[in-house]
Specification:
The complex is a heterodimer of chains A (188) and B (412). Chain A has a 6-stranded mixed beta sheet, sandwiched between helices. Chain A has a single domain, classed as Rossmann fold. Chain A is built from 7 helices and 7 strands. Chain A is globular and about 45 Å long. Chain A has helices spanning 13-21, 65-76, 91-103, 115-120, 127-134, 149-157, 164-178; strands at residues 2-7, 38-44, 47-53, 81-87, 108-113, 123-125, 138-140. The longest helix of chain A has 15 residues, at 164-178. Chain B has one domain. Chain B has a two-stranded antiparallel sheet with strand order 2-3. In chain B, helix 13 (269-303) crosses helix 15 (329-337). The longest helix of chain B has 46 residues, at 40-85. Classes of the chains: A alpha/beta (188), B mainly alpha (412). Chains A and B meet through helix 2, helix 3, strand 6, helix 5 and helix 7 of A and helix 1, strand 1, helix 6 and helix 13 of B. Strand 6 of chain A pairs antiparallel with strand 1 (20-22) of chain B, so a sheet runs across the interface.
Amino acid sequence: MKVLLMGHPNVGKSVIFNRLTGANVVSSNYPGTTVDYTQGYMRVFDRDIEIMDVPGTFSLDAKDKAEEVAVKMLMENPDAKIICVIDTSKLERGLYLALEIIERGFPLVLALNMWDVALDKNIVIDLQKLEVILGIPVVPTVAISGEGISTLVEKLIDVEPVDILHISNTMKLSCLMTSPGCAGCKGC
Amino acid sequence: MHLTPDERWELIEEIARRTLRFGNYKHTLKDAIGDFTVKPATGIPFAIAILFVFWSVFTSFAALMTDGFMIKIFDNHWLPWLQQNFPGGPGNWFYALMVDVGQRQGSAIVASESCFDSFGVLTSGLFLPIGVVLPAIMIFYLMLSLLEDIGYMPRLAVLIDTFLHKIGLHGYAIIPTILSLGCNVPGVEATRILETKKQRFMMMTLLAMFIPCGAQIGIMQKVIPQYIGFIMLYLFVGYFLYGFIMNKILPGKTPEILMDVPAYQKPLVKNISKKMWMRTAGFLREGVPFVMLGVLIINVLYIFGIIEFMATAMAPVFEGWFGVPRETAGPLIAALLRKDLAIAQLGAIEMTKYQMISAVVLVTIYFPCIATFVMMLKESGRAFLGSLLALMIVVFTYGGLLHLIWKLMGVA
């Protein structure tokens, strides 16, 4: 099994990678620290899982060479599972990349990293609702202290691809909720 | 199935509407510091102060460690011990290669008194990388890692953006530039964060020519501390001058950049020390053997008279065009392997201070060291030939210009 760590620049992919593999990849507080991929391994339930730390990219339309590496990595590993790392305080634009990856049919776990910073900023995210809407596991993490990393790994094992149509349909379902006379559904 | 970007954003907006709530956000001290360091009126003086502190700590720590500690170990203990105990002794070729080539005094050759002069694989070959360069790059990487982890680099990028736009780059080019001050290899690799081929080409070429690496600066700090300011200034001016020219004549785009400035973070001691150690270990692994190899090769070339032959053959160029002694041929060969080694060699050649400045500039700009060369080849492919061409032109014009300046001043 192969896992790719993807996400915007400077959201903490390399820190998560170091946490997962015990490797020593350079991580810094500026976008573009990682410009090439690094491979590592972790062992979960007696299985060797190959993990790749991928350079940050804002979308799958590459704008520079580091982003090209990221997109190429994704294309070259069609069987990979993805951990999409998002800066929790910037949920929306992180979701853009996540949706793009989902659309291409990759199974994906969403890591809402820097969860603590978002808490400090009084940003509240309804995790359960987000999970239901997206149909994928959503895990809050604080990579530098290691919070949420083990949950991330657990959820990763059984994750399945979802259909983007399913997501937009769920949205429509939960739309019905607000209209009078709706008996309720699992959509919200 | 694929959505269009608009559809995607619509969907996200809807998702966010249902799952995301923003509470009150209070302006914190962090934000205040953030503003202070990025607004030009306060940010530029602050940046200058930071760089000044960086430089002061770098030079004083390196000097303290080298002069106060390393020199004593190497010159008072290691060198005499080897001179007494190494098989062969003066006159033996293997001894000369490994320990001490000796100093000419009239017609006699006497034992060297310092690891700077002895130029053996086990003496200078160890003393230069470990005694001089190691303390310098350790302190450099400590401070670099600090600035990186706090999150200061993107702010520096914002501040210098307007300036770098004048040469067709943008603020973010400061990242490869600063990394190159440690070692050009990661600097060249970091050019990947630039958007267009033109920008990457320019950046790589400028780095390879005008940005001396930490090891080189460390040795310069030891051998020629009094000229280092002028040399750095001349190199930085070259960086902008040739950047400006290349931007004008090269085809290609130089787009604007939208930059994410991350929040300041409290640096973690663990991450800082880990990075510092990794980078230092990289130097020990790849730098030290190369310096020792360099010393060996240079000694062998001297023994067989190859360097003397080249010096004589190239004399008109060296003396006529660049205004440096013909003996600079030796250091220039060493510079292909390690620039720090080359500077150390220059220190042993008799010349005026103006010739010394010219020679150091020449060593810096004339060709990247082998490690940088390989990385440039890997990163730019065929465009590398263009880089070499630009390099040749720059060496002859900018190196010659310095000679011209000395001539106009009447000191050459």
